[in-house]
């Protein structure tokens, strides 16, 4: 039991580090821009290079774990991620930092894609698995908020290089422990399922899709370049689906989508993360540009959210799921998040953090902390052990696609509304706040749709057992 607990701690620590790295750099972007001379348009690639590699390689990484062993893929990814963190920290120019961020995203994909599959294998008993997934879900749910806090602290007290250097001791210790604690597992080998064509189609399609989404803010969605890139990415993904239906050893066995829990959970994940990841981006802007908080204060302003998530996911989530069923907890949690976003949609230009933002962060943390473990449990509940890696990679892939969609769509909606009001002569604070309100309302709508899908598409295991009986 102590061995399993320590192994779980290592897996979740690495998962937290990878998730955290997607947001820790966000607060440091102004300092990076000043030091390396980025323009506003090129600065976005410090974030986008990581996101594109991470999202594009998750599915392939998960399948590699099933074929050659999840421990091997995890260790390789952790090693690449740690080395890339060092290279990012010592980067001397723009090109180096962007290339090393792409490498860092690739390592993060390899490591994190197999974590959930390893956790479910490590804890075969239902209640123990539910507790373990609750811990893992905390890292997924709170990682971005913790990243904002850590990024603001490191940048203000030290410098932006430490947003990367902080990964080095964590990565080194995790590598040493993982080699000893994680059980060796051997898959059937690459020859049993090396779908090179499928791998190329899905990796290229996902990377191009995420690239198109993040560039849409610059080009606009109606631009021919955006529409053309979107069409090509969808064509590649459609080719991948066709390939999987015909391949003898598919990279992504389409049979897993026949599992109601898998298809429903992944749909909910896209909608939920699209609303919540965009919320973080918009709220950071509202706190800094309207309420005039500095980088460090902005980071700590998010602290109530991860604290609430921790309490729910680590203390209460397993008990609630056991007593009421995963779907009931998921629907209730998502409803609380939608309510919190609706509350934020009423913020004013002369607003106050304590009364206008803090209550929503607490409610959102409670709802998300309850919903995330239930959703992760649903995504893996009926998956065969041989497909655990690809199912883990799939739910992480949909999470990243949702993040890209949410950030691009909500940022575009907010900017469009603000631009229209500025053209009409509205003062800057009021115009910005109105744009943020529009984004919050869209976020609430996405969460409301996620509630509907969860209620209709998913079932509680207790209900299924009653039907069978």
Automatic annotation (TrEMBL):
Residue stretches making up the Major facilitator superfamily (MFS) profile domain: 7-462
Subcellular locations according to the entry: Cell membrane
UniProt entry keywords in alphabetical sequence: Cell membrane, Membrane, Transmembrane, Transmembrane helix, Transport
Transmembrane segments: 42-61, 73-92, 98-121, 133-154, 160-183, 195-214, 226-243, 264-287, 299-317, 324-345, 357-380, 401-419, 439-458
Membrane-topology annotation of the record: Multi-pass membrane protein
GO molecular function: transmembrane transporter activity
Superkingdom of origin organism: Bacteria
InterPro entries: EmrB-like (IPR004638), MFS (IPR011701), MFS_dom (IPR020846), MFS_trans_sf (IPR036259)
Gene Ontology CC terms: plasma membrane
Main localization category: membrane
Keyword check for Cell membrane: yes
Record protein name field: Major facilitator transporter
Organism: Amycolatopsis decaplanina DSM 44594
Lineage: Bacteria, Bacillati, Actinomycetota, Actinomycetes, Pseudonocardiales
């Amino acid at each position: 039991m102590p061995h399993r607990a320590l192994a779980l701690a290592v897996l979740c620590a690495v998962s937290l580090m990878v998730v955290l790295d997607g947001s820790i750099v966000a607060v440091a972007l102004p300092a990076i821009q000043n030091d390396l001379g980025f323009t506003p348009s090129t600065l976005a690639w410090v974030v986008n290079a990581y996101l594109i590699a991470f999202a594009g390689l998750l599915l392939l990484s998960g399948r590699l774990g099933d074929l050659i062993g999840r421990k091997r893929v995890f260790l390789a990814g952790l090693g690449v991620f740690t080395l890339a963190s060092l290279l990012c920290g010592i980067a001397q120019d723009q090109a180096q930092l962007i290339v090393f961020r792409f490498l860092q995203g690739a390592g993060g994909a390899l490591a994190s894609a197999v974590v959930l599959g390893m956790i479910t294998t490590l804890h075969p008993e239902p209640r123990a698995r539910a507790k373990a997934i609750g811990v893992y879900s905390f890292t997924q749910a709170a990682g971005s908020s913790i990243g904002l806090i850590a990024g603001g602290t490191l940048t203000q007290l030290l410098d932006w290089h430490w947003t990367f250097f902080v990964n080095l001791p964590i990565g080194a210790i995790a590598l040493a422990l993982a080699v000893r604690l994680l059980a060796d597992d051997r898959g059937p080998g690459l020859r049993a399922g090396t779908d090179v064509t499928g791998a190329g189609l899905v990796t290229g399609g996902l990377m191009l899709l995420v690239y198109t989404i993040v560039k849409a803010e610059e080009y606009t969605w109606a631009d021919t370049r955006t529409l053309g890139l979107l069409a090509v990415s969808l064509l590649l993904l459609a080719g991948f689906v066709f390939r999987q239906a015909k391949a003898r050893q598919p990279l992504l066995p389409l049979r897993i989508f026949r599992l109601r829990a898998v298809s429903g959970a992944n749909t909910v994940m896209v909608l939920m993360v699209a609303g919540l990841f965009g919320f973080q981006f918009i709220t950071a802007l509202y706190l800094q540009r309207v309420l005039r908080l500095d980088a460090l204060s902005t980071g700590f302003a998010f602290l109530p959210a991860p604290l609430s998530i921790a309490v729910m996911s680590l203390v209460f989530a397993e008990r609630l799921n056991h007593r009421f069923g995963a779907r009931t907890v998921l629907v209730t949690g998502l409803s609380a998040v939608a309510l919190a976003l609706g509350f934020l949609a009423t913020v004013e230009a002369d607003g106050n953090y304590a009364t206008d933002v803090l209550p929503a962060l607490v409610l959102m943390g409670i709802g998300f902390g309850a919903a995330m473990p239930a959703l992760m449990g649903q995504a893996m509940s009926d998956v065969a052990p041989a497909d655990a890696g690809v199912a883990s990679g799939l739910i992480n892939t949909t999470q990243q696609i949702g993040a890209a969609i949410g950030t691009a769509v909500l940022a575009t909606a907010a900017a469009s509304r603000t631009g229209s009001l500025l053209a009409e002569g509205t003062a800057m604070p009021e115009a910005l706040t109105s744009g943020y309100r529009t984004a919050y309302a869209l976020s609430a709508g996405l969460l409301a749709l996620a509630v509907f899908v969860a209620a209709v598409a998913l079932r509680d295991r207790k209900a299924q057992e009653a039907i069978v009986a």
